[in-house]
């Protein structure tokens, strides 16, 4: 879902919903941020971009409007195409752009025409850990643009399994698996999404719970490990007091072995800690490792 939020109070509206510092975003700049509830749980993750106007929460907008605030929502009839992979992505896309892609850094965007299709917004980001872009394109011309891109020999269709293996290799969370309303940003290792000003102001949903966890240290922490199974499974060890859970797992095409991420008790989350993974009632030895499994390739303009 792609939505524009505009009006004089658009920043106040967005910051009443998410943990990021939206006021700090420069024109064309975006940030990954989190929607949280009053208990500190993560209700979703999203990218907010300062296009000048951005997002979908009708009830909160209506509340602000009722108090005389100026905020309006407009759901865009756009599709989203992701073109990922270095160095081919930049070479392929540049052929269809008049803008200089070399000047576009990670998490920045431009409004432009792509291969003759106007009304697009190209954001240098993605869910793969690789250099890539996401192209917001008017829905009526999305298939046309996709077919033009697929006409280039270096471009192939990729399904969810390919995307999921890449995002896991990059150590990126999947909502519904690794994060949900029972997990806070502090527990998920996502405190970097909280703006410094927002931490001080504590004016986002669940701030009291989340900041208390930061001060006291969360009881569970994210953990990454290589193992011989896939899917969700319990993490155990020779010590029965170290329970944990695998939340995502799959074979890694880049590493040639299976990888997983999940949660363990904070006291046992250090890299190098030995544990076992239970897969179909069989125990497999594993060691906690650092994330990402594969170094990311995010592009920063020089």
Automatic annotation (TrEMBL):
GO cellular component, one term: mitochondrion
Span of domain Aminomethyltransferase C-terminal: 243-294
Domain GCVT N-terminal: residue ranges: 3-195
Binding site for substrate: 134
SUPFAM superfamilies reported for this sequence: Aminomethyltransferase beta-barrel domain, Folate-binding domain
Superkingdom field: Eukaryota
Family the UniProt entry places it in: Belongs to the GcvT family.
Assembly, per entry: The glycine cleavage system is composed of four proteins: P, T, L and H.
Stated name of the protein: Aminomethyltransferase, mitochondrial
Lineage, top ranks: Eukaryota, Metazoa, Chordata, Craniata, Vertebrata
């Amino acid at each position: 879902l792609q939505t524009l939020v505009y009006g004089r109070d658009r920043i106040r509206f967005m910051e009443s919903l998410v943990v990021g510092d939206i006021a700090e975003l420069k024109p064309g700049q975006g940030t990954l941020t989190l929607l949280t509830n009053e208990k500190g749980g993560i209700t979703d993750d999203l990218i907010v971009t300062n296009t000048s106007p951005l997002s979908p929460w009708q009830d909160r907008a209506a509340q602000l409007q009722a108090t005389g605030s100026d905020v309006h929502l407009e759901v865009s009839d756009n599709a989203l195409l992701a073109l990922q992979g270095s160095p081919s992505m930049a070479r392929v896309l540049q052929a269809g752009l008049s803008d200089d892609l070399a000047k576009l850094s990670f998490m920045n965007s431009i409004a432009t025409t792509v291969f003759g299709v106007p009304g697009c917004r190209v954001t240098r980001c993605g869910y793969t850990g690789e250099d890539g872009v996401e192209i917001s394109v008017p829905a009526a011309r999305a298939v046309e643009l996709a077919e033009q891109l697929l006409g280039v020999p270096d471009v192939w269709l990729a399904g969810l399994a390919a995307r999921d293996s890449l995002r896991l290799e990059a150590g990126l969370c999947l909502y519904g698996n690794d994060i949900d309303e029972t997990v806070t940003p502090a527990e998920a290792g996502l405190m970097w999404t909280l703006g410094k000003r927002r931490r001080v102001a504590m004016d986002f949903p669940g701030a009291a719970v989340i900041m208390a966890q930061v001060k006291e240290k969360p009881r569970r922490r994210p953990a990454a490990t290589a193992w011989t199974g896939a899917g969700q499974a319990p993490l155990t060890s020779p010590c029965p007091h170290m329970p944990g859970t695998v939340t995502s797992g799959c074979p890694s095409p880049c590493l040639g072995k299976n990888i997983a991420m999940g949660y363990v008790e904070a006291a046992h989350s250090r890299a190098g800690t030995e544990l076992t993974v239970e897969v179909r009632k069989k125990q497999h030895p594993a060691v906690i490792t650092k994330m990402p499994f594969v170094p990311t390739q995010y592009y920063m303009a020089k």
